[in-house]
Predict the 3D structure of the following.
Amino acid sequence: MNLSAQEYLAKLLAKENLSVQHGNYSTASFDVLNRVLRLPLWADKGKDVYDLLVGHEVGHALFTPADGWHDSDKKFNKIPKAYLNIVEDIRIERKIQETYPGIKSRFKAGYKRLFDDDLFGTVGKDTKDYGLMDRLNISSKSRGIVPVEFADDESPLINEAMHVQTWDDVVVVCQKLYDFIQAKKEKEEEEQPMESSKDEGPTTESSGESSQASGDQEPAESEQNGEGNSDGEDSGEKTEETKEAAPEGHETLTDDAQRENEDDLLEKKHDSYDGDKQSQYSAGMSDASLSNIAYTYAEAKEQRDSYLAELGESIHCPYTSFPAKEDWNDTKKTYKTQANLIAKDFERKKAAFEYSRATTAKSGKLDPLKMHSYKYSEDIFLTTTNLAQAKSHGIVMYLDLSGSMCDIIEDVVAQAITIAMFCRQVNVPFEAYSFTTTAYWREVGKGIKDMPIVESEVDSKFTKVVEMFSSKMNKKTFDEAAYTMFAIGKAHSMSRSIKYHLYSHQMHALDMMGSTPLVQTCFLAAKQVKEFTRKHAIQNTNIMFLTDGQPDGVYVHSDEKADVITHRSHKIIKFGNKTIEGSSSRNLYEAALIRLKEITGATVMGFHLATDASSFGSGYHGVHESKDFSDVIKTWRKDNFSEWKNAKGYDNYFIIKINKSARFDTDEFTPRKADTIGDLKREFKKFNKTKKGNKQLVARITDAVAA
């Protein structure tokens, strides 16, 4: 559903920058003061109907005063509100079609569809049986699709109604129509033959005497005119039912049917629990909200420095811990060595890719070394080999910093740093971010950007996406950023092998662990990746999500103007110029990934990080139900990874085995049992296999950028 296109259409038709809002509204409305046009979520009845509905509502927005809208409470003498609705619709539709002649065909085709769907209750009925206002309504909207006849004395009024210019003209014409219909009604009543009875006089007198005798009073004048009620209340205090009821003879069946059937125009979903209800609509996330959840490295560093100034010296603070810095100085050498090896492997893969797609062509020049075979071979020309050129690649990585990652965060951060070093060495542009949420008590006073609540937007108040490092950093800044992430990983790690202690609570709120806002991160990724690709002129951008679990629930701020009852779980969320939908955060995440790929044109890769079989399928839903699940697990344990193509919104989906007993950044071989040469060989073989498995994440990423 492309709601943005309809919003742009509304703005173009209105010739002003109207604020157009879709939402869970039962009908369209316009805020004249703030220039906000609110449109319901209409069902997909084709582009003609949608353009008709948008054009109709823009016509109201441009030409109808506040008193003329369908939901206005203002009264105009005895004129029924339906009269005003019908004639005002004629006026605004004529004016919008005069302004934009090209939309006439949309109106005609759209109304044909609505008449076929019986929106006005006319299917199977003869228009001759309708009153004047109903026939006027059918004639004006059908534009000849439904034949309608008018009497000679009706035609002048019809012609006048079809050419009203102003709202005041509408009121005047409606008064004329009311008077004409009322006069005709009274004349018909007078012409009806009166039933005669020879004892008519005495009977009337007797009944009158009886009425007086029983204590009944003569009806008040207001009651005789139909302006009172049985309780004797003032005419200004009519019940709602009395207010809406049209006077006898002035009913408008087609307008009543339209109001009753308008609900059928709304988009609805069937839910086994809630029945047929509309999905909860969200406008997604505005640019302001996206900016508020994003933190550049410079912003994050400023917040950390400010926090350190308040905290003072602490040996356990990750940012300043001397033991952690010593560990970093030793360990980063291992990272660089591994990055060098990966770079060499990358160059081999790249060369293999180029050679495998090389083409050979004849040059048109004779090869002297082949001339001797000219009698029996035509292959006597020089040839040239053209190597295929690999596309320019870039990487944008999003690393899950949620609480469930603490078991493997140390190792994953180490691999992320190594990947960054590799990218710097082979000149592959990259950006790396952490993403999670923060609790409210951690947010207060600690530099987390204020996130105002905006109605109908996705709730992202506690989401934070923080830049870890990127290719645009110079060497000094990169080393500083890499150490910061190294220390954050150590602080959050549950490993008992660390010889020093870091306090995770002695960090800025930006670096605290929270939950997993994958859907919100996708919204921001669309903006960041488009800018990244444009800036570096990349042919193939790879978006990589490194996570160990499922996305958070997605909540939407309530819209005060919404008046349609919605499902408890099913949501439609605007993402760019289209929408995504789903009944769970998993469905929404999958839809968000597909939409992310559409917006950015990038390759979307998912890396689910699992430590054992129990966490194997928590990211890839449905694998547990597969009959081949046992075989998949067996292969995964052997190869340390499994791969799916085009799965769950990803182009490539990997489940990577992370071995907790042998960290990625550990190259020292320390045998646990080496009583014999055989024991030593077995220990060393196991060590090498584990190390190879722990490098699968890096290996899969280098495969992606070598092509």
User: Anything to note?
Assistant: Residues 322-356 form the longest helix (35 residues). The first strand starts at residue 19 and ends at 23.
